[in-house]
Amino acid sequence: MYPAYLRGLAFLGLKQGPAAGAEFQKFIDHRGVVLNFPLAALAQLGRARTQALAGNVAAARTSYQNFLGLWHGADADLPLFQEAKSQYARLPAAR
Amino acid sequence: MFWNRFRRFSLRLQAVFSLRWCGGTFFLVASRGTAPGTIQAAQQGLDVAPQSSAFCAPRRFLSGSAAWCSRPSGPPARATHPRRFEIDFLAPARRGAGFRPALRDLRPDAVRREACAWMASIRPQPMARGNISSRRDPAGALRNGYKDDAVLWQLLAAFHEAEIGFPAQARQLADPRLKTAGLDRYSMALAAIALDRHDAAQSVQALQPPPVASSASRPRCSSPTRCIRPTSADLLFSG
């Protein structure tokens, strides 16, 4: 599943939200394949970022919540965890 | 009357428990809030989406890992030593040409650490010290003579470090000598991302894409089980 994740990152870097979201969605659709693979959790964050990039705030909020739910026991000083929480807090309020 | 009472009792029971077929075995599981972390996440005000049946296997696996990873001593080795990995290791003939002992021999520990990494619970050991397979497997691959695999796994370790937010360790793992190595495009992408997270733009630019080899100049496989390409992995791990 590394290629899918790398493609997702590349598309995200190119600000091509839908294409990146499709790559990250593969992790979420095939959980039986990725099992406990660490990138499977990170794919949730990737999808949240693509949705935020596309302006889909409600979906992005849900995806961020899913990711933070998965990482509820994460080490508090983990840089990525702090970054995700910060991005989640910066999401505009739902109307 | 008895039948009605039994039916009501049965419905109540079904509201709490359900019988699920998962991995060849029936499991009696609570119908609501069984996913690891669901209750705690709900207490934190997070709306956790309901898990689908496709999450069956990971949920079984992770239901224990949350507790394992929270232990100061880490998860017990016995708990994450699936029998199938033992079989893989002890019966290489079952795996056919795809079996690679270099990647398997340390797999139980890798599985344990991956489960914790999945939960992002990686203390007390930092991410760089053996939490995932990519950290320890280079040694195993090297020991078994798979230098290309050793390079790839080392790059994967760097990639994981970069993704989780430890760019300095990623930079340390993505050895600067990699820029002189004739890596394939996949390894090159991993190295580029690992270095890019560290804002090492110059190092990323120094990674030159490999030339496209023609079929005539492409090296032939020297092993009946796998193709060992003569990349500059020899340069990396020489001596």
Describe what you observe in this structure.
Chain A has 95 residues and is mostly helical. Chain A has helices at residues 2-13, 17-29, 31-34, 38-53, 57-70, 79-90. In chain A, helix 1 runs antiparallel to helix 2 and helix 2 packs antiparallel against helix 4. The radius of gyration of chain A is 13 Å and the shape is globular. The model of chain A has no long low-confidence stretch (mean pLDDT 84). By secondary structure, chain B is mainly alpha-helical. Chain B has a two-stranded antiparallel ribbon with strand order 1-2. Chains A and B meet through helix 1, helix 3, helix 4, helix 5 and helix 6 of A and helix 2, helix 3, helix 7, helix 9 and helix 11 of B.
Number of strands of chain B: 2
The main sheet of chain B orders its strands as 1-2
| DSSP summary: helix tally of chain B | 13
Number of helices of chain A: 6
Determine the strand fraction of chain A and express it as a percent band.
under 5%
N- to C-terminal separation of chain A? 36 Å
Structural class of chain A: mainly alpha
Mean pLDDT of chain A: 84
- The percent of residues in helical segments of chain B reads 40-55%
Broad structural category of chain B:
mainly alpha
Please describe the biggest sheet of chain B, giving its number of strands, its sense, and whether it closes into a barrel.
2 strands, antiparallel
Largest interface: A-B, 34 and 41 residues
Summed up:
The complex is a heterodimer of chains A (95) and B (239). Chain A is mainly alpha-helical. In chain A, 75% of the residues lie in helices and 0% in strands.
Descriptive labels:
heterodimer; A: 95 residues; mainly alpha; globular; B: 239 residues; two-stranded antiparallel sheet; 13 helices; 2 strands; disordered C terminus
Reconstruct the topology from this structure.
The complex is a heterodimer of chains A (95) and B (239).
Chain A: H1 2-13, H2 17-29, H3 31-34, H4 38-53, H5 57-70, H6 79-90
Chain B: H1 2-16, E1 17-22, E2 25-30, H2 38-43, H3 56-70, H4 83-90, H5 92-95, H6 101-104, H7 107-118, H8 133-143, H9 147-164, H10 167-173, H11 185-196, H12 201-206, H13 233-236
Antiparallel strand pairs in B: 1-2
